[in-house]
């Protein structure tokens, strides 16, 4: 790390990863529910974005 700001960000992210790992071991049901929710949200967002792009390309020939 070249700056203290970058170092602090690196340390902060490692602390968050460690806490998430500890919580995942402490409560695996909550961890699996949170991961399932994150996957569901990301799939919904991806689907909406694909729909938007598809509708924007509709005027072009061969859009389907």
Offer a few descriptive terms:
HDED protein; flat; 64 residues; transmembrane; mainly alpha
Structure description:
This is HDED protein. Pfam families: DUF308. Keywords: Membrane, Transmembrane, Transmembrane helix. The protein is 81% helix and 0% strand. The chain is an all-alpha fold. It has one domain.
Q: What does the overall shape look like?
A: flat
N-end to C-end Cα span: 49 Å
- DSSP strand (E) fraction? under 5%
Return the average pLDDT rounded to an integer: 88
Report low-confidence residues grouped into runs of 5 or more: none
The helix content, as a percent range, equals: over 70%
Radius of gyration: 20 Å
Total beta strand runs: 0
Secondary-structure-based class equals mainly alpha
Q: What's the number of helices?
A: 2
Largest sheet: none
Task: Give a short overview.
The chain crosses the membrane at residues 7-26, 32-53. InterPro entries: DUF308_memb. The termini are far apart.
Set down the secondary structure blueprint.
Layout: H1 4-26, H2 28-56
Helix pairs in contact: 1-2
């Amino acid at each position: 790390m070249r700056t203290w700001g970058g170092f602090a960000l690196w340390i902060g992210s490692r602390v968050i990863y460690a806490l998430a790992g500890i919580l995942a071991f402490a409560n695996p049901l909550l961890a699996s529910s949170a991961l399932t929710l994150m996957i569901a949200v990301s799939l919904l967002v991806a689907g909406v974005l694909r729909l938007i792009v598809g509708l924007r390309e509709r005027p072009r020939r061969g859009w389907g």
